[in-house]
Design brief:
- This protein is mainly β and 637 residues long.
- It has one domain: TonB-dependent receptor, beta-barrel domain (Maltoporin, Chain A).
- Helices cover 2% and strands 60% of the residues.
- The chain has three helices and 36 strands.
- The chain has a 22-stranded antiparallel beta barrel. A six-stranded mixed sheet has the order 2-1-5-6-3-4.
- The two termini are 36 Å apart.
Length: 637
């Protein structure tokens, strides 16, 4: 079983591969399970940061950096991020203060004590091209610096494009035995990022979508934003079996200008009304972090670990003030010719501020060859103030108790069972782009989760996990005035499984699936158009990823199979997105360039060109990528 027990008794930061050694990256061979994993430019699994068991861990605020609480407003760039794991069920066992919607645990690219660098050049068949360099520079035995630079021109499948560059710095300082301090900084600038088109049909039918690489919006409707992440991670062994850990973070998304293109009231023949929302400059800023004291108590074959934690955040977000521009009638395949207005007429923006502190205590216990048990109790103090022009200020104050408990038992050397319960306070994201209150932050909600399952060690190198889960949380949808708000509750019951490991010395497999049976119960105040199926929840999701080391030196082949079930596309359940299958094939070729390790990665994504429909909200659709080729060349120095 995994857990935090070893961490409690040793240095905080986990062991990692040298920062300059990126040619080894392969999601299939490195993933521990099929629940969600990414490393470098590769990812796999049935879940990701935006969707786990039907819900979004990122929108819920369940992000962690090296296991510590982090409130994200801007994503961490690849030059700073080493890997990301989705923790649910047994994989979350041992994580103090578990979250109902799953945990997204992000590991940073730690500086190495050896000088070196990796250069990555990426490309795709649309015309994307970029170069990234990551490296480490040891200053002394106590101090090492890591750095990253990336510049890319991206050509997206829907015909939009952008230019972006980012840079990052991270240091690892060990001023004394038992003390580690790791400050970091990253900055991303995004330019000329055209706003893709959303399609809103006039009735209960699936819309006609534009062809791949056929951008229909005006060329000038592009995003320009800057993302900043700064922070520090620190660990100190203050006494034998006592460790203090600190994570303090600042995350900023600074939107200079933004747009949303919509083909509204689209008819079956692809005609409709061309609308554009122009957004004023807005900024989202969050200061967050966690201070944790951990005490481990060895007791023969048993180990007891006690955590005391203080988590806090102060987040300020701006939204609204958009101007609606009506271009009149439009049609699929016909570009908007209108020039950019001389000026935009924005309304005053609204402001939202959240201040939250959470005090908690947790216990983890492991008994060798018997099992482990954990539980936690937290008290949250949540305050939210929303200021909107023309209406009284809205103030919310809540002080709920939050708790979770898990237990696992080893029935034999190869079989373990587990059970868990969690109650959490989570965010709900923002209103979708076609809502009357578009981009408005939604209220925090109380959620709960129950799950159970069993893990099998099929062989020494292959393990399987089978589990069931039951999640409940408020459900959001549209009212008669097109306002996106809470309209009921949703209960998501399902089963999941994972099989992962080296089947043979040359064949690695990561396969998994989720079977979902969600149900919406409308509130008394909701109208009768609320269906029983929540929007965007598929009936199932199955994945299989295999990596084969061929007899030819350095050549590996991989295959990815994905099948997603049908899902409700509208709140009233009148329209469903059909099931969709996808096949990807690829290769890693590992070789030497001037005695330096190198890897050429190439992949054909969506081999059979089955694009399907993307659901961006109730009754609002986007295009999915069809078939294309992508790849990169990595060289370690």
């Amino acid at each position: 079983m995994t857990g935090v027990f070893a961490i409690a008794a040793t240095a905080w930061f986990p062991a990692a591969a040298d920062a300059q050694s990126r040619s080894y990256e392969n999601a299939v061979t490195q993933a521990e399970d099929a629940f969600g994993f990414s490393v470098g430019r590769e990812s796999l699994g049935i879940y990701n940061a935006g969707n786990a068991r039907g819900f979004s861990p990122s929108a819920a605020g369940n992000l962690r950096i090296e296991g510590l609480y982090y409130d994200q407003q801007a994503g961490i760039p690849d030059t700073l991020l080493d890997s990301t794991s989705i923790k649910v069920g047994l994989s979350a066992q041992g994580y103090p203060f578990a979250a109902p919607s799953g945990i997204v645990d992000q590991s940073l690219r730690r500086p190495s004590d050896k000088a070196g660098a990796s250069v990555v050049a990426n490309f795709d068949s649309f015309g994307t091209a970029g170069v990234e360099i990551d490296g480490s520079l040891p200053i002394s035995k106590e101090l090492a610096i890591g750095y990253g630079l990336n510049g890319t021109h991206v050509e997206f499948p829907d015909g939009t494009s952008n230019w972006n560059y980012n840079g990052s710095l991270i240091a690892l300082w060990r001023p004394a035995p038992g003390i580690e301090i790791m400050p970091f900084w990253s900055l991303l600038n995004d330019y000329d990022d055209e706003a893709g088109v959303f399609y809103v049909p006039a009735g209960d039918f699936l819309p006609k979508l534009a062809k791949q690489r056929d951008y229909e919006g005006p060329e000038w409707s592009d995003f320009r934003h800057t993302d900043l992440n700064t922070g520090v991670l620190a660990s100190a062994r203050v006494a034998q079996n006592w460790v203090v850990r600190l994570g303090a973070f600042r995350s900023v998304n600074d939107l200079k200008h933004g747009f949303t293109n919509i083909l509204a009231d689209e008819q079956p023949d692809g005609t409709g009304e061309r609308l554009l929302f122009a957004d004023p400059p807005t900024k989202s800023v969050s200061n967050s972090g966690e201070l944790r004291l951990t005490h481990s108590i060895p007791d023969g074959p048993r180990l007891h670990v006690i955590h005391l934690s203080l988590r806090a955040r102060d987040a300020r977000r701006e939204f609204g003030g958009s101007e609606l521009i009506d271009f009149g009638p439009g049609q699929i395949g016909v570009k908007v010719p209108d020039p950019e207005p001389d000026e935009f007429h924005f309304d005053p923006v609204s402001r939202d501020r959240v201040r939250q502190t959470t005090f908690g205590a947790a216990y983890d216990g492991r008994w060798k060859n018997v099992g482990e048990i954990s539980f936690s109790l937290s008290k949250a103090d949540f305050r939210k103030k929303t200021v909107q022009p023309g209406v009284p200020d809205a103030i919310t104050h809540s002080t709920p108790w939050l708790y979770n408990a898990t237990a696992a038992a080893e029935l034999s050397k190869s079989v373990a069972v587990y059970v868990g319960y969690a109650r959490g306070l989570e965010e709900s994201g923002v209103a979708p782009p076609n809502a009357a209150n578009r981009n408005q932050p939604l209220p925090a909600i109380l959620t709960e989760q129950k799950d159970a399952g069993v893990r099998f060690n099929l062989t020494k190198s292959v393990k399987a996990v089978v589990g069931v889960f039951d999640l409940s949380r408020p459900y959001f949808g549209f009212d008669g005035a097109n306002v996106f708000k809470q309209v009921g509750t949703v209960r998501s019951r399902g089963a999941e499984f994972s099989v992962s490991g080296a089947v043979t010395p040359t064949l690695d497999l990561v396969a998994g699936g989720m079977l979902l049976k969600p149900k919406v119960t409308a509130s008394d105040a909701a109208d009768d158009t609320i269906g029983s199926k929540p929007v965007g929840f598929p009936t199932h999701l199955l994945i299989s990823s295999a990596n084969w080391k061929t007899p030819f030196k350095g050549l590996e082949l991989d295959l990815i199979l994905v099948h997603r079930g049908r899902a409700a596309a509208t709140t009233n359940n009148a329209v469903f997105v059909p099931e969709r299958a996808r096949v990807d094939i690829g290769t890693h070729y590992r070789f030497k360039i001037a005695k330096r390790s190198a890897t050429l990665r190439a992949q054909i994504y969506n081999l059979f060109d089955n694009a399907g429909f993307g659901v961006a909200g109730s009754g609002i659709y986007s295009t999915n990528p069809g078939r294309y080729v992508q790849g990169y060349l990595t060289v370690d120095f």
